[in-house]
Amino acid sequence: MYRTLLACLTLALSAGAHSAPPAPPAKATKPAKSTKPAADRRASAAPSGTPYRTREDALRFADEIAERQGLDPAWTRRFVSQARLLPVVQKLMQPAPAGTRKNWAVYRSRFIDPVRIAAGVRFWQQHREALARAEQEYGVPAETIVGIIGVETIYGQQMGTFRVIDALATLSFDHPTNHPRAAERSAYFRGELEQFLALAHRAGASPLEPLGSFAGAMGLPQFMPTSWVRWAVDFDGDGRIDLRRSPVDAIGSVASYFKGYGWQTGMPTHYPVTLEAGRTDMDTLLAPDILPTFSVASFTAKGAGLQGAALQHTGPLALVELQNGDAPNSYVAGTENFYVITRYNQSSYYAMAVIDLGREVKEALARQP
User: Fold this and answer.
1) Dmax over Cα atoms in the chain, in whole Å?
2) Fold of the 2-103+155-248 domain
3) pTM for the full model?
4) Which sequence spans correspond to the domains of the chain?
5) Cα-trace Rg, the chain
6) Catalytic residue among 152, 192, 194, 321
């Protein structure tokens, strides 16, 4: 396992020294992590901003990494001091103004388009065996894996142009303070920076080279450093893990990720739901947000109507709300598998885009001669 992880990071770092592939037509922006593809096209991969060599808090953290990970403190200080604060990353991490209504129809249109669907069909055709094997071994449908990789990077066409160390350092030490969970998010990114540096050191590779998203995610599936450690797999059997150049490794790793977060084979991601004005207890149903909490009986008792197979569902459900700008909101009944998709990105809009893209690609593939 240790040697596999070293190979994993070595491949990521060496890949990061190369330029990202040419960007195809517009990629959507998403809140937080999900804004990365469009943002990457607007920013240069070249270092910019103030280096952290004069920041005592950053250098102190470098020493803490060295102590916890058993590394040479001079090594950790050297690379942390060369990381740069990127104002564009801070800007991209800014939350939307309070009261801003989201628009599911607009969001969906950025991902579900002919270019991305056609790319998904080609990806599925090229990697049909690996997708089928991943579905068999992990229980995750091929269309869900295809949806993830398509939403994240258009099947490897947009894997990011930010230096990973700059992105992670910026969000570790200078996360926007107006974010509602700024302290929690800073702590999260410090953990990712620590894991990234520790793996680079053990691999004997330079952490200044790899490129990724503005949030520090890498490869076709845009894995954060801790996800590389926990879920990445050598699915093509060549003795190394390469999530940048091996679509087969990316396919297996996405399936491994979902299985690790509790994906249940054969369970739908969501069901249609009907709501009656004045009869539905919206406050109670929406209180847990996207966390499945209600049994079918309690869900329907609160005025959320279900039909057909949904009435036989045995696990908990959540009422998932999708705002449509000035138009009425849309709703679905989300299952535990819907919630698993949101572990990749904590957004119901993201999860629905993944689901819809996967379904559209599957239907387009079925229409091929």
Assistant:
1) 65
2) Helicase, Ruva Protein; domain 3 (1.10.8)
3) 0.85
4) 2-103+155-248, 270-334
5) 21
6) 152
